[in-house]
Amino acid sequence: MVRGKTPMKRIENATSRQVTFSKRRNGLLKKAFELSVLCDAEVALIIFSPRGKLYEFSSSSMNKTIDRYQKRQNDFGIISKAVDENMQNVKEDAHSMAKKIEFLEDSKRKLLGNGLEPCSLNELQLIENQLERSLSRVRARKNQLFWEQIKKLKEEERRLGEENAKLREKCGMRPRQSSTSLSDELQIQIVEVEVETELLIGPPERRRIQKP
Fold it and tell me: How many CB atoms within 10 Å of residue 45?
Protein backbone atom coordinates (compact mmCIF):
# COMPACT_ATOMS: atom_id res chain seq x y z
CA MET A 1 0.00 0.00 0.00
CA VAL A 2 1.41 3.37 -1.03
CA ARG A 3 1.26 6.12 1.56
CA GLY A 4 -0.25 9.38 0.40
CA LYS A 5 1.69 12.60 0.56
CA THR A 6 0.94 14.61 3.70
CA PRO A 7 -0.37 18.07 2.80
CA MET A 8 1.68 20.97 4.21
CA LYS A 9 -0.92 22.52 6.48
CA ARG A 10 -1.87 22.43 10.14
CA ILE A 11 -3.33 19.12 11.28
CA GLU A 12 -6.72 19.89 12.74
CA ASN A 13 -7.11 16.68 14.76
CA ALA A 14 -5.30 17.12 18.11
CA THR A 15 -4.44 13.43 18.53
CA SER A 16 -3.05 13.09 15.00
CA ARG A 17 -1.15 16.32 15.45
CA GLN A 18 0.50 15.06 18.67
CA VAL A 19 1.41 11.71 17.08
CA THR A 20 2.94 13.44 14.05
CA PHE A 21 4.89 15.81 16.31
CA SER A 22 6.36 12.93 18.34
CA LYS A 23 7.39 10.96 15.25
CA ARG A 24 8.94 13.88 13.41
CA ARG A 25 10.63 15.24 16.54
CA ASN A 26 12.38 11.95 17.12
CA GLY A 27 13.35 11.77 13.45
CA LEU A 28 14.74 15.30 13.54
CA LEU A 29 16.76 14.61 16.70
CA LYS A 30 18.14 11.44 15.10
CA LYS A 31 19.15 13.31 11.93
CA ALA A 32 20.88 16.01 14.00
CA PHE A 33 22.87 13.34 15.87
CA GLU A 34 23.83 11.58 12.62
CA LEU A 35 24.95 14.88 11.04
CA SER A 36 27.20 15.70 14.00
CA VAL A 37 28.81 12.24 14.01
CA LEU A 38 29.18 11.62 10.27
CA CYS A 39 30.33 15.12 9.30
CA ASP A 40 32.03 16.21 12.55
CA ALA A 41 29.71 19.23 12.62
CA GLU A 42 28.76 21.31 15.63
CA VAL A 43 24.98 20.90 15.84
CA ALA A 44 22.51 22.44 18.27
CA LEU A 45 18.79 21.77 17.98
CA ILE A 46 16.02 23.34 20.07
CA ILE A 47 12.36 22.29 19.83
CA PHE A 48 9.34 23.55 21.75
CA SER A 49 6.16 21.47 21.67
CA PRO A 50 2.75 23.10 21.20
CA ARG A 51 2.36 22.87 25.00
CA GLY A 52 5.71 24.60 25.60
CA LYS A 53 7.80 21.55 26.49
CA LEU A 54 11.48 21.87 25.58
CA TYR A 55 13.42 19.27 23.57
CA GLU A 56 17.04 19.90 22.69
CA PHE A 57 20.14 18.26 21.28
CA SER A 58 23.70 19.53 21.20
CA SER A 59 26.79 17.80 19.89
CA SER A 60 28.97 19.70 22.40
CA SER A 61 27.58 22.38 24.71
CA MET A 62 24.31 24.17 23.99
CA ASN A 63 25.46 27.43 25.64
CA LYS A 64 28.78 27.34 23.80
CA THR A 65 27.06 26.82 20.46
CA ILE A 66 24.55 29.61 21.16
CA ASP A 67 27.38 32.00 22.16
CA ARG A 68 29.21 31.12 18.96
CA TYR A 69 26.05 31.78 16.94
CA GLN A 70 25.44 35.16 18.60
CA LYS A 71 29.06 36.22 18.06
CA ARG A 72 28.81 35.31 14.40
CA GLN A 73 25.58 37.30 14.06
CA ASN A 74 27.19 40.33 15.72
CA ASP A 75 30.19 40.12 13.39
CA PHE A 76 27.89 39.81 10.41
CA GLY A 77 25.94 42.86 11.59
CA ILE A 78 29.15 44.91 11.83
CA ILE A 79 30.26 43.79 8.37
CA SER A 80 26.82 44.50 6.94
CA LYS A 81 26.85 48.00 8.47
CA ALA A 82 30.30 48.69 7.04
CA VAL A 83 29.15 47.50 3.62
CA ASP A 84 26.08 49.76 3.79
CA GLU A 85 28.23 52.77 4.74
CA ASN A 86 30.66 51.98 1.94
CA MET A 87 27.81 51.72 -0.57
CA GLN A 88 26.48 55.08 0.61
CA ASN A 89 29.91 56.65 0.12
CA VAL A 90 30.15 55.11 -3.35
CA LYS A 91 26.73 56.52 -4.27
CA GLU A 92 27.72 59.99 -3.03
CA ASP A 93 31.01 59.84 -4.97
CA ALA A 94 29.17 58.73 -8.10
CA HIS A 95 26.68 61.58 -7.73
CA SER A 96 29.49 64.09 -7.24
CA MET A 97 31.38 62.70 -10.24
CA ALA A 98 28.25 62.94 -12.39
CA LYS A 99 27.90 66.62 -11.45
CA LYS A 100 31.55 67.27 -12.32
CA ILE A 101 31.16 65.55 -15.68
CA GLU A 102 28.03 67.58 -16.42
CA PHE A 103 29.89 70.81 -15.51
CA LEU A 104 32.84 69.89 -17.75
CA GLU A 105 30.53 69.03 -20.65
CA ASP A 106 28.75 72.37 -20.24
CA SER A 107 32.10 74.23 -20.15
CA LYS A 108 33.23 72.36 -23.25
CA ARG A 109 30.08 73.35 -25.16
CA LYS A 110 30.54 77.01 -24.17
CA LEU A 111 34.21 77.01 -25.22
CA LEU A 112 33.09 75.71 -28.61
CA GLY A 113 30.62 78.58 -28.88
CA ASN A 114 27.47 76.56 -28.15
CA GLY A 115 24.87 77.21 -25.48
CA LEU A 116 25.95 80.80 -24.84
CA GLU A 117 22.41 82.23 -24.73
CA PRO A 118 21.89 81.99 -20.93
CA CYS A 119 25.39 83.35 -20.17
CA SER A 120 25.73 86.77 -18.57
CA LEU A 121 28.25 89.40 -19.64
CA ASN A 122 30.65 88.40 -16.85
CA GLU A 123 30.46 84.73 -17.85
CA LEU A 124 31.16 85.59 -21.47
CA GLN A 125 34.15 87.67 -20.38
CA LEU A 126 35.51 84.70 -18.39
CA ILE A 127 35.08 82.42 -21.40
CA GLU A 128 36.86 84.93 -23.61
CA ASN A 129 39.78 85.20 -21.15
CA GLN A 130 40.05 81.43 -20.97
CA LEU A 131 40.12 81.14 -24.76
CA GLU A 132 42.84 83.80 -24.97
CA ARG A 133 44.97 81.96 -22.42
CA SER A 134 44.49 78.69 -24.29
CA LEU A 135 45.38 80.33 -27.61
CA SER A 136 48.50 81.81 -26.05
CA ARG A 137 49.62 78.40 -24.79
CA VAL A 138 48.95 76.84 -28.19
CA ARG A 139 51.07 79.50 -29.91
CA ALA A 140 53.89 79.09 -27.40
CA ARG A 141 53.93 75.32 -27.97
CA LYS A 142 53.85 75.78 -31.74
CA ASN A 143 56.78 78.21 -31.63
CA GLN A 144 58.70 75.83 -29.40
CA LEU A 145 58.25 73.03 -31.94
CA PHE A 146 59.37 75.38 -34.73
CA TRP A 147 62.57 76.31 -32.89
CA GLU A 148 63.30 72.68 -32.11
CA GLN A 149 62.86 71.85 -35.78
CA ILE A 150 65.22 74.71 -36.74
CA LYS A 151 67.82 73.41 -34.28
CA LYS A 152 67.66 69.93 -35.81
CA LEU A 153 67.95 71.37 -39.32
CA LYS A 154 71.01 73.41 -38.29
CA GLU A 155 72.68 70.32 -36.86
CA GLU A 156 71.92 68.35 -40.02
CA GLU A 157 73.11 71.25 -42.19
CA ARG A 158 76.37 71.52 -40.24
CA ARG A 159 77.00 67.79 -40.59
CA LEU A 160 76.30 67.85 -44.32
CA GLY A 161 78.50 70.93 -44.73
CA GLU A 162 81.42 69.17 -43.06
CA GLU A 163 80.99 66.11 -45.27
CA ASN A 164 80.77 68.32 -48.36
CA ALA A 165 83.95 70.16 -47.37
CA LYS A 166 85.82 66.88 -46.93
CA LEU A 167 84.66 65.63 -50.33
CA ARG A 168 85.73 68.89 -52.02
CA GLU A 169 89.11 68.67 -50.33
CA LYS A 170 89.59 65.13 -51.58
CA CYS A 171 88.60 66.11 -55.11
CA GLY A 172 90.89 69.20 -55.07
CA MET A 173 87.99 71.61 -55.38
CA ARG A 174 87.75 75.00 -53.75
CA PRO A 175 85.67 75.35 -50.57
CA ARG A 176 82.12 76.45 -51.21
CA GLN A 177 81.32 80.04 -50.32
CA SER A 178 78.89 80.46 -47.45
CA SER A 179 75.35 81.54 -48.31
CA THR A 180 72.05 81.83 -46.57
CA SER A 181 71.18 78.38 -45.30
CA LEU A 182 67.79 76.68 -45.42
CA SER A 183 67.45 76.80 -41.64
CA ASP A 184 68.17 80.55 -41.62
CA GLU A 185 65.54 81.12 -44.29
CA LEU A 186 63.04 79.06 -42.31
CA GLN A 187 63.89 81.04 -39.17
CA ILE A 188 63.35 84.32 -41.02
CA GLN A 189 59.99 83.07 -42.31
CA ILE A 190 58.89 82.06 -38.81
CA VAL A 191 59.81 85.48 -37.41
CA GLU A 192 57.85 87.14 -40.22
CA VAL A 193 54.82 84.89 -39.62
CA GLU A 194 54.72 85.59 -35.88
CA VAL A 195 52.15 88.36 -35.88
CA GLU A 196 50.24 89.16 -32.72
CA THR A 197 46.52 88.53 -33.12
CA GLU A 198 43.62 89.10 -30.77
CA LEU A 199 40.66 86.84 -30.16
CA LEU A 200 37.48 88.91 -30.01
CA ILE A 201 33.98 87.77 -29.15
CA GLY A 202 31.24 90.13 -30.19
CA PRO A 203 29.93 92.05 -33.23
CA PRO A 204 32.54 93.39 -35.65
CA GLU A 205 33.44 97.04 -35.34
CA ARG A 206 32.35 99.35 -38.13
CA ARG A 207 35.20 101.09 -39.86
CA ARG A 208 34.95 104.29 -41.86
CA ILE A 209 36.19 104.12 -45.42
CA GLN A 210 37.98 107.29 -46.43
CA LYS A 211 37.19 108.43 -49.90
CA PRO A 212 40.18 109.43 -52.05
Answer: 19
